[in-house]
Amino acid sequence: MSRRVLDLVLAGGATGFFLPLQLGAAALIRLEDGGPAIFRQSRLGKDRVPFVVPKLRTMRDGEVTRVGRWLRATGLDETPQFFCVMRGDMAIVGPRPLTAADVSRLGWTGPEHDARFAVPPGITGLAQVFGGVSARHSRALDALYARRASVRLDLWLIGVSFAMNLAGKRRVRRWLRRAPRPLGDRSRPLGRSAATFRLDGLSESP
After folding, report:
1. pLDDT digits (tens, 9 = 90+) for 135-148
2. Exposure pattern of 24-60 as b/e (b: 16+ CB <10 Å)?
3. CB 79 within 8 Å of CB 158
4. How many alpha carbons lie under 13 Å from residue 176 in its C-beta half-sphere?
5. Pick from 162, 160, 154, 184: which is nearest to 174 by CA?
6. Contact (Cβ atoms closer than 8 angstroms) between residue 120 and residue 90
7. How many CA atoms lie within 13 A of 90 on its CB side?
């Protein structure tokens, strides 16, 4: 099975699974502040071609809402992006989709960063699951994924992301500190401290 076929099968199933949760979350967003439930933003996709990403709205007037905190903690705000996968703008697993402003701010506009944009961005990925330490750290995780991409790793990341949707990101990350590595030596734990995260020999600090 090709990765694109796997993406379509999983995105179709996930769309059906998450639709009731999305509708419930949309109703809560509307009840909380009366604003729109969906937030849309232009991001850069494969070959830096822009496309529109829909998300469940989590902010109002620059502040995260109460419903938004729950959506962010579980990652449910990202689930409308499965429609982008079915459209072909995104993959299930890949680098985090960035805005043009993000790319400019990070200094990732040069040809030395083209490899990152050679594949479609993903809803989940190493940087989405384990990132948040620093831009350099996230970039290293994206580069590691590009080198080690496989259906096995994709399925592992999808399983972790689904667990985060159900149990919350913090709890699942605590579990992962004691879990076997998805890459390389399984005898050593997958560890991350507040300052440093190591994965299969990769060490990055903020």
Report:
1. 888 888 888 887 88
2. ebbebbeeeeeeebebeeebbbbeeeebebbbbbbee
3. no
4. 26
5. 160
6. yes
7. 29
Instruction: Report helix angle 169-176 to 151-167, nearest 10.
Output: 130
pLDDT band at 30 (very low <50, low <70, confident <90, very high): very high
Least confident among 125-129, 175-179, 191-195: 191-195
97: Cβ contacts below 8 Å, ≥ 6 apart: 43, 44, 45, 53, 90, 121, 122
Task: Report yes or no: 182 and 191 within 8 Å, Cβ to Cβ.
Answer: no
What would the DSSP string read from start to end of 36-56? -SEEEEEEE-GGG-EEEEEEE
How far apart CA 203 and CA 194 sit, in angstroms, is 13
Q: What is the largest CA-CA distance in the chain?
A: 51
- Selection from 111, 38, 114, 52 nearest residue 84 by Cα: 52
DSSP state of 113: G
Q: Which two tokens stand for residue 90?
A: 């995104």
Each residue of 95-121: pLDDT tens digit?
989 999 999 998 889 998 888 898 899
**Residue 3, C-beta contacts closer than 8 angstroms, at least 6 positions apart:** 91, 151, 154
pTM of model > 0.90: no
